[in-house]
User: Fold these one by one.
Assistant:
Number 1:
Amino acid sequence: MLPFRLYLILLLTSGYLAAQPNTRKLPMDTMIVTQGQVTIGGAAVPYEVTTGVQPVYNDSGKVTAGLHYTYYRRTDREDPNRPLLISFNGGPGSASVWMHLAYTGPKVLTIDDEGYPVQPYGISDNPYSVLDLTDIVYVNPVNTGFSRMAEGADREQFFGVNQDIQYLSDWLSNWVSRHDRWRSPKFLIGESYGTTRVSGLALELQEEAWMYLNGVILVSPTEIGIERAGIVEAANQLPYFAAAAWYHEQLPADLQTMDLEPLLAEVEAYTRDAFLPALASGMDLSEEKRRAVAETAARYSGLDAQEWLDNNLMPTTAYFWKNLLRGEEAGNYTVGRLDSRYKGIDARAGGDRPDYNSELTSWLHSFTPAINYYLREELGFRTDLQYNMFGSVYPWDRSGDQTGENLRQAMAQNPYLNVLIQSGYFDGATNYYDAKYSLWHIDPSGRMRDRLSFKGYESGHMMYLRRPDLETANEDLRAFIRNALPGENPARY
């Protein structure tokens, strides 16, 4: 027999799902509650799952959208001070599925140990989930997952850097009130564009909702409004080139036999001390020095010196993905953008860029059936709506992106607020050295350096897809959350 609370919630909220199974109209305020249990670190962790929709309101109180979310609450711990982790993915326009079913949640999709899809599709328990330490809510912004605008709503109020932050701040404040989580230490985690989102939310929540956070986790971060265009962006690619070339065994023997992190430390030092100044010299760089730079860059990248010279010492990432494995000996494969461990096959070996992103097709192969099965069949959220892995959110207003500065200001105002960056070394879209650069420039003064940290992994954009990194990244996240809980220490300088 169902517990009374669960029966009552199902009775009150499942009318839409039971009575209107064939509709594609989203209920703007509903939820379904189920129970589960997972073993983490050898101990059983029972939990309650709430998956539902909560409305977005405009300034006049009118419902303008409904956001779908999934909330995991550990049920054998009635601690009002238990942490809460609020999770967003990126895009913009990407659903919360990625970290939900592959990183922090109690379920992980069926893939092999390196992250490649296998059949039959499905999910299993995640023995590394952080649910033992913190409750978790996964949020889908408008037009992602099952989240949708209300009929007649204005698109422009949702789809932009600052618009996104503003409506999500109000929605989160309401969500925390509904679920009685105001006393909980709160952490935001965002992946890719989600890092722009959570960086901006850190300050918006403080200033508009008076909600102060303990931590922000940036997974494979974007530039978060920190300027690094031109030669800085070009120079910062070299350490990533070295990582990908090392993985595919395209480096000289003496470098190929090195462990990855010591190799990258060497390339980073060269990038900062020699490569960036050389690019800054432009046409004033002598031919002798230009040739020397090309030779060193070739040694670290798997491309040859002439390719560096032909591209004015600044080959694009698209060129790299297309050309790293060009040639019969290398198989004439392309390498992936978001994770360069993945290989693809183009219609022709020549050209400037790959025909498709080999890693993304692989991920969609496994994530799409898993999330649809899990939400509909296991959690009971029955609807004819399509689950948008990537939704229509364009044009996206990118003006006024000050999210990195917003994060710095939030940290300055809140001595409890800590920041962790997690990056995969083989990510060619938001590369790990760019992430380090952003870390250095969030607080150029260095006065808050003890609250800023970086962790790198031998995988790509979604570093948790590789099984050893799933374990390590969750342990790093668990340690970060524990260290950001101040106990009875006052928030003061």
Number 2:
Amino acid sequence: MASEEGLRDREQQEGYRAPRVTLTIKDFDVLGRIGDGSFSTVFLARQKQSGKQYAIKMMNKHLVMRNKMVEYIKNERFILDKFDDAGIAKLHFTFQDPDNLYMGMEYCAGGELYEQINKRGRLPLEAVRFYAAEVVLILEYLRKAQVVHRDLKPENLLLSGDGHLKLIDFGSARAFFLPAAEKPPGKQRATSFVGTAEYVSPEVLLNAPLSYPADLWALGCMIYQMIVGRPPFKAASEYLTFQKITDREFAYPGDPGYNADGEPDDEEGGEEEEEEAGGKEGKAEGGAAAVEAAAQREGADAEAAAAGGEGAGSSSGAGTGGGGGGLGAAGKVPKLRGPVVYPDDARDLTDRLLTMEPAARIGAEDMAELRAHPFFAGVDWAALRAGPAPPYLPPRVPGAPGSDGGYEEGLDWELTSLVRDAAES
């Protein structure tokens, strides 16, 4: 396997795509914070020698061990090292010091797909078709690699500088090629709920065997969210969300019950409006029999819940960042207004993805069936990743002055302290 150019494995082993290098935090200029987790911080950094930029995920060893997440970290590192696909954010290298583990990830300058949906209210249909098609290509690769992601959602899909999607966060993934000893602990059951409530498939909640169609269910949820502006299964609590999923309770715009489900916040009509990116939803995790567990832990300690989400291998924004392109001369794209239109072909595809029986979902047996759906008519699959991407709203550049005044300065001070402590360890 070819290692990152200029970097060699510290033990001279050539079997790693992402070598275990002898770098330290002092070898980087830290440019700004990208994201946070309960035991990790992700920041944009430039390697001093090469001048290359990376999204560095720094994980505190003490917190990793205290939360018993060592196997999850090993699982993510092992899986990422096997991947070589344009639709997956690349792991370039890893290193460590006495207090922290570091993963040098590909920096994706366009930020999260979630931010595009959140700030624009919803996406134009052609953008939905483009992003959904790129997710199909990613899922095809994962199936060939014998991996189920298990936490497919807009927050875990990043935009490259030219606007193409890249998937992150494989700590909760199931790799069927891994020997039993290398899988994360607690896998005696058929499956377990690890991921985000709004996108988890019904078979996971019902403790049925895990299979590739679990990610197809999440794709159906994302297509709905991109068109409507919110996930199809969303309620006031995790428990109620699970109930909606197991009952397959959702409605399309114009159907009875759609208003009762809650309209997206921006469905009031009016002229097109220009917005910038920002905002994010939280993450949830549970164990087997997740519906019952969610009912018991409503109102539970938020820090413990966050630790669980991180335990699922959350990249906490790893690889996200600012800058980016894909925009016209004005550097802005319009926020959509007016009634939501859910085309018939999109509705048919969503229905066939959000099928309760995993084996009955479109693409469950053959992903070519999914490619051939009328919703993707006109998609040039061979040229999709090489062609132009939809325009997007670039996020704030990490480390750049923000609108939060002292709050932004406080974040920079905290990051500076973390990096200084790491450099002195």
Number 3:
Amino acid sequence: MDRDTILLAQHPQFSRWLDQVTATGGCAHPIHLKGSTTTRDACTGEILHHYDTAHEPGERLLVRCRNRRATICAPCSRLHAGDTFHLVRAGLLGGKDVPADVRDHPRLFVTLTAPSFGAVHRTTTDNQRCRPRRSAGHCEHGRPLSCPASHDTADPLTGQPLCPDCYDYPAHVLWHAHAGWLWKAFTDNLYNHLAARTGRTRTGLRRAARISYAKVAEYQKRAAVHVHAVVRLDGATGPDDPPPAWVSAEDLTAAVRTAAAAVHLHTPCSRGLGEHELHWGSELDVRPLRAFGGHEGLGDDAVAAYVAKYVTKGSADTGIGLDHPITSPDDITTGWLSAHVRTLIHTCWRLGGLPELEPLRLRAWAHTLGYRGHILTKSRVYSTTYAALRAERAEYQGAATGADVADVLDAVTEASWRYVGSGHTPGAALIAAGIAEDLLRNGEVARVALRERRADEAAS
């Protein structure tokens, strides 16, 4: 590593390479691109801007990997967390083309959980015992149905089944595979139950109100997903339209509870598995949200920060699943997994081979225990998008560096790029990590200075 670092530092284009790494924020696994971009005036053919990697170090350009997992790339995960925070916060307090009036709309923080698939060891506090059942006896496999021990979050037994043979692993995997449909059924029910509670028809309610949301999936210690969602009630056209006066936050809260309880789906019938009924767990949490100085409910900024923090967690943080797809059962043995999680992945692989379950693509999603889709999703008009936030940041950075092309209405851009590699050499990785740490420290100092300046301005 030392030799690699010295050779890199002695390279004639080392300073330009440093500029590239700094521009990526010290990305741990940058993408290497080769190509060129030319912008011309469509009327005159005049070249307004031209860029070619031919004169770059190694004839390549480094760009961010944009991986959200902190265990894979901490600099990119921090950027993703910041984007997520602003995306969620804008839907709560306004900004990013969302009017500030949304803070006055009924808004809830909802947690939906998975049902029980079998008894597991649970986290306890104040020296409480896990499952203190004096006369619980033993299951049919000879294992005790009670646990007198106390478990903290670091205990490897936490979340593990009391009896793996009694645990319904196929139901667990199938529930994960249908989580998207369960959420869709919940939101559909929500309109029906809110209409019934307010004395309107579903059509009448949809013409007057709209439900917007942003949700994040989180794995519990038992390796089952539960869903945190910010749910907001708007007028018919979205955040610009206030909700009707005849729908209150209490009505929305009651409708959420009954709509979740009414969800019942069935899996495709399988000769070996039969048919499973799917529903949400009985542990449902619904809390109102407050803006700024309110005293009741959760704080908007706190909720946005919580969601932003969770989306950056990888499998090494949660101990659940793998960060990459698996291609064969042999891949399952490569990760540091608990016996419970390993069995869930094996179950995904086994069920994925059944013809009747092929549409679920369980083998492709075995590394996430059958759960499909993005960690964070939102309704169309909840707030801004990741793409818009990235475009705004790129425009700001371009303006700050003076990289804007002349303002020509009929400009045409021709681009030709190809992928030529990724990652760093050991020496380059060490330098990039130092740059990322410096940028993080500079950002923290700047934020502290900004808070102090705002405090001084408020005091004066």
Number 4:
Amino acid sequence: MKRSVKILIAIVALLVVARLLLPYFVLRYVNKTLADMGEYTGHVDDIDISLLRGAYQIKTLTIRKINGKVKEPFVSIPRSDLSVEWKSILKGKLVGEVECYEPELNFSFSTNESTRQTGEGADWTQVVKDLLPIQINRFAVVNGRVNLLKLFAASKADLSLQKVDGELRNIRNVEEKSGSLPSPVWLTGDVPGYGGSMRFDANMYLLKDIPDFNYNLKFTDLQLVKLNPIARPYANVDFDKGTMSVFSEMAMDDGKLNGYLKPLTKDMTIFKLKEPGEHRTIGRFFTELLAQGATEVLENRKRDQVATRVPLTGTVDDIKTPVWPTIFGVLRNAYVQAFEQKFDNDITFTDALQSFKEDFKEKRADRKAERKEKRAERKAARKAKREAKKEAKEKK
């Protein structure tokens, strides 16, 4: 047998052995990485590898909170496909693509720690870096679902986004310079519990504990009647008809944020003299009557809408919503100029970055003043010490 044939057979044998053993080693590595994520742990049932395509398929990825009492897992992905872009390899770059089919995320915003599930308590940045050691050019979600459980503390109503499709590009596994937003993302979905739909567009830097971003978010044509489970406990009112759309822009840099919420209601009716089938309390009767009266006063007649703009500033832990600009916004919509059902396009990432810089300068000035005060205290202490020594010598 010729030597070249022997070499070819050896190469084929090695490829076969690699094909048989590689899924085992990859599965073991992935499960080892997912096993210890702080307060969360994960598991993958199986991995199938295609050497010729440069791809592998993850089957049934599940992430749960350790000692958590939420029935639903935090993350559940029945199938994910990961592949390498051959055209990028030919250019000397190692770039991959990920597609997740029917993924489900379950957030729980309970005040009880055992039933709270928000992703806090895990270093997701490090997990991403360990599992995806290459640049991901495209991360796609197909027919996903996001459940926001116990989002409204005074109500049993939850919020669910279904038929979620989206795409995230250019996920870097290296640190970016400050002020950079390398990853564009878009998401769409339905809000079946409340009617209407959702659209999210953003540029983000994800590999941080608190990601930097600049986003546009809108919910359109939410049915006010379907919001009654929330309106009753929070505002003591019932909607009889109408729709609501919400537009929001926000930018955040290192936890400092700047943005707004712009809710617009159309054809809204709150008060109805007789509501068949419902036993309305006297308090709710008069609350709805007053609310309807205020609606009539503050409604833009031409567009049949009540709207305002709520400024949002501060930090992730302390978001401020100034009252007077919100009130003036209602009056402006009613009597000056109606708000448009679109984004104002006046929030940029530079705003959040500038806010961060101003905060940094303020802290630096505080530190400088503190150092100056301590120097003055040390100087005064040295002076007092010298005077004490001088007095002691004079007494002698």
